[in-house]
Design goal:
The longest helix has about 35 residues, at about 5-35. The protein is elongated. Helix 1 (about 5-35) packs antiparallel against helix 2 (about 40-75), helix 1 (about 5-35) runs antiparallel to helix 6 and helix 4 runs antiparallel to helix 6. It has six helices and no strands. It has helices at about 5-35, 40-75, 75-80, 90-115, 115-125, 130-160. The protein has one domain (about 5-160). The chain is mostly helical.
């Protein structure tokens, strides 16, 4: 182990905290609190759009750094790809990689659905009600999927950290 290994793991953990903690905070704390304190749906969604855009800068960067540091941390396995299919560690890592890819796709879809043009329309209150309701449903679903995937990925990371071997 060289000096960089613990440093990269530390960076990975810090940005995991940012990504997962921020996602959970927005979905589990902020959104329900706003529902109770801000009854006007348009104002509430406008506020969440502003918060979401701000979080996307940090969260999107965190996700990218997580992928880079994750690849670095898995470099030993990637040097011998057959190890992905020859051990429980490899299977867990493969499952984690698959979930990260799905998470990345869900995040990109979320960003594409809630692009700057749509955000501007929401903030200027020029979105038709039917579209607004549909958009809100998609955003909520994608947010829940993002949090669920992130928590599942964390669980797999914990299994990898402990070197869990099944069977």
């Amino acid at each position: 182990m060289n000096f960089y290994d613990p440093l990269v793991i530390w960076v990975h953990l810090v940005f995991t905290s940012i990504w997962v903690g921020g996602s959970i905070f927005i979905g589990v704390v902020l959104a329900p609190l706003l529902k109770k304190t801000m009854p006007d749906l348009n104002k509430r969604i406008s506020f969440m759009v502003i918060v979401g855009r701000r979080f996307n800068y940090l969260g999107g960067s965190a996700l990218l750094i997580l992928v880079i540091t994750g690849i670095y941390n898995a470099r030993t396995i990637f040097a011998q790809p057959s190890l992905l299919f020859e051990s429980s560690y490899g299977y867990i890592l493969l499952a984690k990689i698959i979930l990260v890819c799905i998470l990345f796709i869900v995040y990109i879809i979320h960003v594409l659905i809630l692009n700057k043009k749509v955000e501007k329309q929401i903030l200027e209150s020029i979105v038709p009600d039917e579209y607004f309701i549909s958009l809100r449903g998609k955003i909520i679903l994608l947010g829940r999927v993002t949090v669920g995937l992130s928590i599942a990925i964390l669980f797999l990371a914990a299994l990898l950290d402990r070197g869990v071997v099944f069977g």
